[in-house]
């Protein structure tokens, strides 16, 4: 990198510490001419109190100063501000201090009298080191995060496939249970059985069996919905129209509550190419959750905006909000905070699965007591089935996986 | 009004399911013949008058879709309601394209099933009536020619 680039684009926060005022000011002026502005401190204590107020990238520190010595200040800096690099300035008599300083974590030491060019280069090198470490840390963090997501997604994908297989096998016995219950109900309606003792208890028990079958079959159908692969229709989709369709479908949920639905749709919203059936399911899942979060009185806002290569849909509610500790878990299968029997814990799991397939993303923000907001970003062009398969078969975690193989 | 029983052929490899659903349909006045495979279904259709076939899609051997194709080519007036244990609808959609009257997801609600059964029976009766009228018209025209 050219030296002038540092000064132009990323001003280095530099602190010059020396008890010789004249030397310090001269250095500061000459560095400023090279594009490096610096703060100044006349002793160790002043240096430390300035660091408390302002973060510094590089400290150029004289070793021999009255009061706190340079090495003591250095030790304090490396302990309290590990990201700050220190260059020590030593006289002939204090070379051993310089070596001591390197051991204590100084970036380097320079002997007085120093050449400005030499000092300048050292400052730039120290700053480059900071940036390299920061980049490495970011990369490590990113890698760690991606690996965790990869593990989670693989786990969910295999779990989903297994669960769907089980769900399919369960549907047949469920059908038999339902028909058997129905048959008993028909038998109880016969004249000869109408007056048997505890007739109502029998009927009540049948109700419970039927309700449980309904609950189980809701789960199995949603699970099967999650893994369906071939049912894809990529066509022109108007997200605002899809939202309206989904709103109509949840009307029965909002009818008995005081829930207002507000739309903010960008005028002349363009069509996108995607799968309307699956997106309708996404809208439906998010709206149903919003209604359940609000419970009785509140507002659901649907915002649809154009954003260059994609469109962004935000579904916000004024419901109870999602606790911070649950935010990471809401997309997991079978995670539900709804009362037992009301939620399958699959809505958001399916939602994210669909969006992964369609090359989109979903993010959530929430504050307890204020509500939650789900933000979906969808590409405008899921052009061909090839793209779709690309998104589905080699979905994002495979792409990330291949990145790490190298 | 006395209900004329719909002659239902119930096809599913799950014997318990066929038995129980058979009981229930008989209880509401339908006439039910059970079958446990596509092959058996076709054999029964050859020797019996059937209005509506309730047909499971996933069966070992000849599956529901293959059976449906045969039914529609040999007995186009017989209506077919597909039953699927799959949450996927594509096989059902394929069935509809091949001429099935409707489809239901397992486990289906009995009320929904009987409603569809009634509609299927109605459509079959209308078709039969239309053909009968057309034949009569044809006969009359022929006799007029004479």
Can you offer a commentary on this structure?
Chain A has 406 residues and is an alpha/beta fold. Chain A has 15 helices and twelve strands. In chain A, the strands form three sheets. Chain A has a five-stranded parallel β-sheet, sandwiched between helices. Chain A has a five-stranded mixed β-sheet with strand order 7-9-10-12-11, covered by helices on one side. In chain A, helix 6 packs antiparallel against helix 15 and helix 8 runs parallel beside helix 13. The model of chain A is unreliable at 1-9 and 384-406 (pLDDT under 50). Chain B contains five helices and five strands; from the N terminus they run βαβαβαβαβα. Chain B has 146 residues and is α/β, with parallel strands linked by helices. In chain B, helix 2 (38-47) runs parallel beside helix 3. In chain B, strand 3 (52-56), helix 3 (64-74) and strand 4 form a beta-alpha-beta unit. The mean pLDDT of chain B is 89. Chain B has a five-stranded parallel β-sheet with strand order 2-1-3-4-5, with helices on both faces. Chain B is globular, with a radius of gyration of 17 Å. Chain B has helices spanning 15-27, 38-47, 64-74, 90-97, 110-145, and strands at 7-11, 31-35, 52-56, 79-84, 102-105. Chain A binds chain B through residues 164, 167-168, 171-172, 174-180, 182-183, 186-187, 213, 217, 220-225, 228, 230-231, and chain B through 14, 16-17, 20-21, 23-24, 27-28, 85-90, 105-110.
Protein chain pair with the most extensive contact, residues per chain = A-B, 27 and 21 residues
H/I helix tally of chain B: 5
Mean pLDDT of chain A: 82
Shape label of chain A: elongated
Number of continuous helical runs of chain A: 15
* Whole-angstrom Rg of chain A: 33 Å
Helicity range of chain A = 55-70%
Average pLDDT for all residues of chain B: 89
The portion of residues assigned to helices of chain B is: 40-55%
Structural class of chain A: alpha/beta
